[in-house]
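Changelog excerpt: complex records now keep ligands as SMILES alongside chain sequences, and the structure block spans every component. Example after the change:
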Amino acid sequence: MDFSFMAKYWLFYLVGAKNTLLLAFLAVLAGSLLGFLVALARLSRAPAARLAATAYVEVLRGTPLLVQLFIVYYGLQAVGVRFPDFPLADRLLGIGFSDFMAGALTLALNSAAYVAEIFRAGIQAVDRGQSEASRSLGLGRGMTMRYVVFPQALRNILPALGNEFVVVIKESSIVSTIGVAELMYKADTVRGNTFRPFEPLLVAAACYFLMTFPLSKLLARIERRMRSGTH
Amino acid sequence: MELIRTVGLRKSFGPVQALRGVDAVIGKGEVVAVIGPSGSGKSTFLRCLNLLEVPTGGSIAFDGEIVRADPRGAHAGGALADGPAADAWRRRMGMVFQHFNLFPHMTVLGNLCLAPVKLGRLTPEAARDQAMRLLARVGLEDKAASYPAQLSGGQKQRIAIVRALAMGPEVMLFDEPTSALDPEMVGEVLDVMRDLAAEGMTMVIVTHEMRFARQAASRVLFMDQGLVAEEGSPEELFGAPRGARTREFLAKVL
Ligand SMILES: Nc1ncnc2c1ncn2[C@@H]1O[C@H](COP(=O)(O)OP(=O)(O)O)[C@@H](O)[C@H]1O
Ligand SMILES: [Mg+2]
């Protein structure tokens, strides 16, 4: 094994890791907002909303991320939708903004399906007596959700959202296939430039692990703290 | 004066008929104890009164306003009556649950102020003053800043009672308020309820505390298999029960 190429290429990995984190963060942020809405639709009284939300969750969880990515990437091109190219953003990211957005959008749409389930499970795990007590005081559906159920559900939801972030960091490697210069793409570039088939990928794996492992440990700690809290 | 009247009240959960036509009248200022074997429909009756369950038959009149049954309620699987009218209806009825159901993420003060403030009844300052007065009434002023997890069962239930009182209800419904308590804490909760009764509050109390029902109730309903099988003054019902089922039940619990 020979890692001497790192002297020349370490910045590739740094930029790649930065872009991976950025992708994952944007995807989970947008995915959480969308996922929250999908969860509310799934728990609503309107049958049409429930059906649409359930279909969304099932379809996105039941099809491969790679297929979704290509559908968004080539599909958007086919219908002529193109994210604008910002030269400034391109320079900051070191990658094409338009492709980056297509990748982030796919990851967000996909993550939203999982996040919706996280929200739904978190909300449903709150004892029904809580909402009944709130309703018996005359508080309506919305206020009961906002002041009584949701704050309690957050204790279940936040740790799971953190885990989702870890998952998306790993899954985001797939957007290298549409040329988004995140960690995996950069590693592959190094592989091509150095004619070393193996070591550049090992470094990439190490980088992913260095991002996900401490994060998982941190999350586990936070989760323990939340569970043992007095309220 | 009549405050609540149910006519032919029915409630089914799928194939299970929890209530099979309950006719009952609750007068203003009355303290009505509801007794009966487990599964006889006592909780369902209370929950129908404040529309936590949607009746599947009959009607409920509350202070002249009438709610009629929604036969679809049987399929609505645990759905309660929704909408502004049902919310307004519930605002006028306090409910106390067996398992307290205090909001664990809020302090005691937060529990007492939530509904009055969010529903625009009181300003935050006024709600706070009212909460402190209510807490003083049950001897728990010093717990205002505590969280429910820091309280004993008896304290939790006393807080749950004053939380309901904070909305100024016209009637209080109690569903086995002492059943989840350690024996030594039952007394403190019953004392609060006695005080409430003495002040003239209209109360409907599902209870297994027969001594309390006998002393505190102005009338007793005996429920059996989804019906009010017998009713009368405590003296009549406990002293000279007429029905065989009533006698059988009382023989078991007394
Ligand atoms: N949410 C529910 N779903 C299905 N069955 C229920 C539900 N609530 C009550 N029941 C049934 O209705 C009957 C009456 O229950 P309940 O009113 O709780 O009786 P009690 O309070 O007198 O013990 C029981 O057979 C019970 O199993
Ligand atoms: Mg019961």
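The longest helix of chain A spans residues 6-42. Chain A touches chain B through 22 residues (CB under 8 Å).
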